[in-house]
């Protein structure tokens, strides 16, 4: 297997085409076992793709001497920067037709070099695609146009240091190219943590989280990375924007909020002062089963509208619960977790469990006082939780993207998408997604489809449901089938005025839905801002703004 | 006394020139007593100004017939819309030289009329100044230019209804012209509350809060109005921007965050879906005294960095504590309050008091279980708290702007300004403000100045200090003295990279400081957005963008 160079901070090899580490991929036998779960899939897995089988081609542009040491045209590196890690990307690699492979990959080490690269690219019509961990599942890091002379993938992972720590204000200045484990390792000696743990934690960077408004660890309250930003430095073709470090401000529209979610279209986020927390000392988790999913929704709403603030409050529907091993009897399962640096959390957990039981929950088990990462945090962050359903869910959570790739090798089409809506619309929305997206998947393939749902983040006024659709595909036709499923999903979300994305970002795959969602005057304003900051239109073309 | 028509929802008469209700103003004897507190003030108060003494002039433009029923040229109404309620505004009225009086005042009743008024104004070069409660203390609602043919004050207080309440998602669609008490009165029958109580609560509107990113009730956590917005409708000259109602979204930069804080320069916010809460059932408050202000700062930091989340955590320095009656022995006083709709808060209060005592606090008293509005909430919201220092502070808090106007009548110059900074800079910042702004006030007047400080909002990573400067002025020279004090304050804030405003907004008075604070590329983007949305540059000219 051809592979990209090792990621920073680890000796394990990253896969050039699939999720995460190459050595964590399911082997052929495991793929066959996965395929057996879905009627109609292949008898044998598609072969693991190799860069050597691609026609990578020679770069269409040469960097200037002064920047040459930052730039590579190595085919393995370029192939590993050609796409993100959506199912659509995986299957294109498996079929030997990945997205456009960038001409060059640059790895700057400080802001000045980023600015110099933008200057050079702007003068030559070279598209610049910012690249962090490359874990985009929305087509955020590939070039799909044809109006640029060449494509430069701007890999920021050499800018991965925590530059300053302010223990008094509990904050740190962190370079944007730091992967999750890399930044947490540098914060740990100070007793502090960013505590932002998206599912992609190991394979995504601070800059990626900021550029896509990633959703993190917390199931309630402040979970989007937006809320943990004190200030940003963003290199744009029109100069570097550095906001002041402030705990809060009312001085005009927030400069940071314009760049948060800008997905590389307005500038390259190079560093940020981030708000940190003490590491939690008290934790407790529990799970509660529900025979009725609607009752479970009501339980979650009651907890979200209490002031209990669980760190984890994830509801798995029966299909999700079964797949993750959290239940085996067709129950939905609510996974609850609490944590605190200051005081024991057993009382809050007990109150939340009581609320769940009062809303029709039953059974379940409780893990008191564990130090465990009940919350989807990586193994390094703590021991396994005491509650078995919680523990099963957690390991399945981190394993899921690998299993998706195994299913893809068996010819399955797998799509995951997420949204958010206010509580009044949630039950009907979830029903409509199940019915309509399932039908679309079956219609496109002739095979039965499974549509599972979990709630990943809950708010007093609404919730973020996350859907997984899996269906056996037709060999060679997977991208079109995936497009049909995506279109059906977008149609339902639009009808219910549910956001096209809660935390996966827009990228290129969600552009049609985003364009329908975004108010027209705001689109005018954003386009004008883009013209002002990126006059040569080189920054991540096709993302957010045409 | 000439006065504007009564405010909605009350039969009391609003003052056309001073804070709040005319019948709440200190009388001449009370003014003399106030003046005695500041050496060098006048022996007798300046007379209360009358509209009849102004040269209001005839309007420079006539509205079209179709809109005429929405528009008035009544001199009393126009005078009441000429300025906000900064000290600078008050003293200009007292000296008979208010800001430019608008030619017309319009009171639209729905979005279509707002759009029609903008169309009309855009075609004729008429400046449009959005006007809610008129409580701006930063020159946000007056015209200071000379490039427009006429000035229209767009008063939104006829759009003051709660249009829909969603009790499932705990949210409501509210028209932007609703004053605080007007919107709370409409939410109360549903058992819900917005719980946004700025000091100006009675005299400011939802639209004003949104346009200025107002800071509210909560001393910790989410306090800026920004965090309570589900969606906005904004009428711009380029069309109406209506975002979807969402509990959260990661779809590109937040449309709402561009309009939040736009201060009328990008569009007219006409309604918003706002996140609500159950009304609190449990409350407790306490005060703790500190002989040493630095120790008190450390106590506040410890509480802010705990997970106790007090609703109120306001630290008064000795001068503030004395003036408000919260202490009489030169102590600083920390006012603490907790509230919850769900569960008793005595335990959290006790933990916070313990933290304060462990950091050098002493004495103080505690009011357990009271229903009282310990938090600056208006009387309608609950009974007085049991703690006497808390109670004294609360009534002084609501009375302060009236006293400021009384001092102004005695020839004093009074400036209040606020900021926010990270904890590492806070002690030096507060010292520098006291020393340098005090010196500037004395230098400008020849009189001793008092500079008091309180902390209004606290965060894990920093704090928002609020300063009050008072000094006897030189008759007729008050505006220049105030400008000198403002310049000195801005200089210190800039040096410490402390925001020019935490919750008072930028308006016209803070433009120099704002222009220094705002990153240059963001200014480019904002200007481009303004050009796209307001091509005729009629919206609140001079605010945020030239």
UniProtKB/TrEMBL annotation, chains A, B:
It comes from the Bacteria. Coiled coil: none annotated. PROSITE patterns: FAD_PCMH. Residues 361-385 are annotated as: Disordered. The keyword Phosphoprotein does not apply. Residues 376-385 have a biased composition (Low complexity). Residues 97-279 form the FAD-binding PCMH-type domain. Pfam families: FAD-oxidase_C, FAD_binding_4. Keywords: FAD, Flavoprotein, Oxidoreductase. Belongs to the FAD-binding oxidoreductase/transferase type 4 family. This is FAD-binding oxidoreductase.
């Amino acid at each position: 297997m051809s592979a990209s160079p090792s990621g920073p901070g680890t000796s394990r090899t990253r896969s050039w085409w699939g999720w995460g580490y190459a050595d964590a991929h399911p082997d052929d036998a495991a793929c066959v076992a996965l395929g057996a779960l879905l009627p109609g899939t292949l008898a044998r897995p598609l072969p693991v793709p190799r860069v050597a089988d691609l026609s990578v081609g020679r770069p269409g542009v040469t960097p200037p001497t002064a920047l040459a040491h930052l730039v590579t045209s190595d085919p393995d590196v370029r192939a590993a920067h050609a796409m993100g890690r959506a199912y659509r990307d995986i299957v294109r690699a498996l079929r030997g037709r990945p997205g456009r492979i960038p001409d060059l990959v640059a790895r700057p080490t400080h802001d000045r070099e980023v600015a110099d690269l933008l200057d050079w690219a702007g003068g030559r019509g070279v598209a610049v695609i910012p690249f962090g961990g490359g874990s985009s599942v929305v087509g955020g890091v590939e070039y799909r146009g044809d109006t640029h002379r060449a494509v430069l993938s701007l890999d920021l992972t050499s800018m991965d240091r925590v530059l300053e720590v302010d223990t008094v204000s509990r904050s740190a200045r962190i370079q944007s190219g730091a992967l999750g484990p890399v930044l947490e390792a540098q914060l740990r000696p100070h007793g502090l943590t960013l505590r932002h743990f998206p599912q992609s934690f190991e394979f995504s960077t601070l800059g990626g989280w900021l550029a896509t408004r990633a959703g993190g660890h917390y199931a309630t309250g402040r979970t989007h990375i937006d809320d943990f930003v004190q200030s940003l430095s963003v290199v744009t073709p029109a100069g570097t924007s550095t906001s002041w470090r402030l705990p809060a401000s009312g001085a005009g529209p927030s400069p940071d909020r314009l760049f948060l979610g800008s997905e590389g279209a307005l500038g390259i986020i190079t560093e940020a002062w981030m708000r940190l927390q003490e590491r939690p000392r008290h934790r407790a988790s529990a799970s509660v089963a529900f025979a009725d999913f609607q009752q479970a929704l009501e339980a979650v709403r009651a907890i979200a509208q209490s002031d209990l603030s669980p760190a984890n409050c994830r509801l798995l529907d029966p299909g999700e619960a079964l797949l993750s091993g959290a239940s085996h009897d067709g129950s939905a399962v609510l996974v609850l977790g609490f944590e605190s640096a200051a005081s024991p959390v057993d009382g809050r957990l007990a109150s939340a469990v009581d609320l769940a039981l009062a809303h029709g929950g039953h059974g379940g088990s409780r893990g008191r006082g564990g130090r465990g990462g009940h919350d989807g945090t990586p193994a390094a962050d703590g021991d396994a939780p005491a509650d078995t359903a919680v523990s099963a869910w957690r390991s399945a959570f981190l394993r899921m993207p690998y299993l998706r790739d195994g299913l893809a090798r068996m010819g399955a089409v797998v799509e995951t998408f997420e949204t958010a809506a206010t509580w009044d619309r949630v039950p009907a929305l979830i029903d409509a997604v199940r019915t309509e997206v399932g039908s679309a998947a079956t219609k496109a393939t002739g095979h039965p489809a499974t549509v599972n749902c979990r709630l990943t983040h809950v708010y007093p006024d609404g919730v973020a449901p996350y859907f997984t659709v899996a269906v056996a595909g037709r060999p060679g036709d997977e991208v079109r089938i995936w497009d049909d499923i995506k279109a059906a999903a977008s149609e339902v979300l639009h009808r219910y005025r549910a956001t096209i994305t809660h935390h996966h970002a827009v990228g290129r795959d969600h552009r049609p839905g985003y364009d329908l969602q975004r108010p027209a005057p705001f689109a005018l304003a954003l386009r004008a801002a883009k013209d002002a900051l990126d006059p040569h239109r080189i920054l991540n073309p096709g993302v957010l703004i045409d």
